[in-house]
Amino acid sequence: MQPEATVERIRVRYGETDQMGHAYYGHYALWFEQARAAWCRARGFTYKELEQMGYMLPCVELHIKYRDEIRYDDVIEVHIKVTEIRRAAIKFEYEILNTETGKLCTVGLTWHVTMGGHRKAVTIPPEVRALLERPPQAP
Predict the structure, then answer these.
(1) CA pair distance 59, 75, nearest whole angstrom
(2) Which CATH architecture fits 6-132?
(3) Residue 59 and residue 29: Cα distance in Å, rounded?
(4) Which of 20, 51, 57, 64 could form a disulfide bond with 112, CB atoms 3.0-4.6 angstroms apart?
(5) Phi and psi for 5 in degrees, rounded to 5?
(6) What is the pTM of this model?
């Protein structure tokens, strides 16, 4: 698999920071989720459409490593790519860069399992695999 990254730009809101002015650690998972939605849209589908097909991709594992600070009003880029697709699971990897400093602030990954209507893991169906393996479309 030749992963192609999608980039989601985010301006850090005041409410996403803690009393010290740093991005609150819990918001990183939300930024990852926002980037995953952008990754899907770049490939011509939405998560909502995937659910309408009868499938869900719940996150079953999350890893985050904080390397540098992110503060209020910083503009960050979340770079996301799929690095592994197994029978019923998908691995996304993330890098968060501060656009002003150019520093790599955060790295992370999530694993998602394909679930069908009975809330049980299922083999990724061919039509869903085709969506996941699609290269990003031109904006």
Answers:
(1) 26
(2) Roll (3.10)
(3) 10
(4) 57
(5) -80, 150
(6) 0.93
